[in-house]
Specification:
The protein has seven helices and 20 strands. By secondary structure, it is of the alpha+beta class. Strands 12, 13, 16, 17, 18 and 20 form a six-stranded antiparallel sheet that branches. Helix 2 packs antiparallel against helix 3 and helix 5 packs parallel to helix 6.
């Protein structure tokens, strides 16, 4: 990981470094948007945050950016806004949004020193206690556990479902795992309806234990309390195999009805039968991803390439020699590939 000072998805140099250095990067763009929206009360609020997520396609690996709300070089979040309820909203956002969350030490203790605006060195006071009963500690513990359980949060796509300056609802999705999040920086509000993508029935909020009824994938008359947080989770079946390959493909542009698959000379990839190829998940317009279990071919050299399924048309295969990889005997590995221009099958 690198600390590219004040990186931003609108900065071409930041994007180039993130995509070609081989390191992940601190997501200053998202950090500054969260601070503006939730700590400083900007007029655009959550729309400022969504604008950053809308730029994720510029990165080769937006899900691996390191997300944060403050660090050792800036005033702590609570030096900008001492309201612990607003800190809770910010924590819930980075713990359920794409990226790898990084919590600055003492945040769970509401640690801050506002001398001279709370800037360096006053953002680094000594910790006098370690209280595991604070509400923020509880939120971090609960949402950390949720991240481990639900792969939609660590690996999935991000879908905006409701957005105003004060209210933000979104869904994280990976395969059949789903996480629905509703955040409110303003006063109590009721939404007539909001799509959750969750299966119908009763679902319990991870953080409040309140129960919500889903009908036709939606919650009707959703009441969100002042500075409220609602997190509903459905964990699907996890991928299991002797070796897991996390496949990430960048640089392919698809239209509605088009799907990316991996085909290859092994049973896990369909033995070159494209009808049995392994499908990838859409993450954003630059990234497709999947976990592929390898058992029979673990430890073997395989050949593979990507193809595009197109409804009503012949598949489009990469126009290049086969890619080759020795599958590890066990463990988890990652393929990072870029789509080669396609040709009709």
């Amino acid at each position: 990981m690198t600390e590219e000072a004040y990186s931003h998805p609108g900065d071409d140099r930041s994007i180039e470094f993130a995509n070609h250095s081989g390191m992940t990067m601190l997501d200053f763009g998202l950090c500054m948007a969260i601070r503006a929206a939730l700590a400083q009360g900007s007029d655009n609020g959550f729309q400022t945050i969504q604008y950053i997520f809308d730029q994720d396609y510029r990165y080769s690996g937006a899900t691996e950016l390191v997300t944060f709300i403050d660090n050792h070089d800036m005033p702590r979040f609570q030096s900008l806004n001492p309201d612990p309820a607003m800190l809770k909203v910010a924590i819930a956002l980075i713990m359920t949004a794409r990226g790898i969350p990084c919590i600055y030490y003492g945040t769970e203790q509401y640690l801050h020193n506002d001398t001279d605006g709370g800037n360096d060195p006053y953002n680094r006071p000594m910790m006098e206690k370690w209280d595991t009963e604070t509400e923020t500690y509880r939120y971090i513990r609960l949402l950390s556990g949720l991240r481990r359980l639900n792969p939609a949060i660590s690996m999935g796509s991000h879908w905006q479902k409701y957005l105003t300056p004060d209210v933000y609802c979104y869904v994280r999705r990976y395969r059949d795992s789903v996480c629905f999040v509703a955040l409110n920086r303003g006063g109590e509000v009721t939404l007539p309806e909001v799509d959750t993508e969750l299966p119908d029935g009763e679902h319990t909020c991870v953080v409040t234990r309140n129960k919500y009824e889903i009908k036709d994938g939606k919650i009707y008359d959703l009441r969100i309390e002042e500075r409220g947080v609602i997190v509903l989770s459905r964990v699907g079946e996890r991928i299991k195999g002797q070796t897991l390959v996390r496949v990430q493909l960048n640089g392919v542009h698809t239209q509605l009805g088009e799907t990316i698959v991996v085909t290859g000379d092994c049973p896990e990839l369909g033995n070159w039968d494209i009808s049995k190829a392994y499908p990838l998940e859409y993450i954003n317009s630059n990234t497709w991803f999947a976990e592929i279990p390898f058992d029979e071919s673990a430890g073997n050299l395989i050949s593979y390439k990507y193809a595009m399924w197109r409804e009503g048309r012949s598949p489009l295969r990469e126009n290049l020699v086969n890619r080759r990889w020795v599958i590890a005997k066990e463990g988890t590995v990652k393929w990072r590939d870029t789509w080669a221009s396609g040709r009709e099958s």
